[in-house]
Amino acid sequence: MIKIGKxxxxxxxxxxxKNVTNNYYDGRQPGDEGNGDMVVEADEEVPEPxxxxxxxxxxxxxxxxxxxDEGWQPRGLSGSEQALxxxxxxxxxxxxxxxxxxxxxxxxxxxxxxxxxxxxxxxKKSLKFQDLLKETID
Length: 138
Prior knowledge:
Helices cover 49% and strands 4% of the residues. The protein is mostly helical.
């Protein structure tokens, strides 16, 4: 990936999609698959706390439910839903540094995930999503 400036013109000149969370140009073209603000290279390693049989079972249940893709990247989830998912998985796996772990996996700043989580706590629709998460990973 190529680090780009914060000026939108840089993105247009580069001819790709800007990673709005981290300010990266990731080489995708408009209309390509992906959620637009999170990019993980195919050879990236899974963070240590997510390695293991129990973690794999939890993450694969989210894949089966259509919440994550095969690379364990969010699939059609809002920022708040991503943060709720990260928190729910972390609670079940005993991960204390939830925002750092999932920030590394999803290439999102930990502070951004934490902000999404705080916002989720004020949204009524979050309750329904939390129920869906419980059904999926419990």
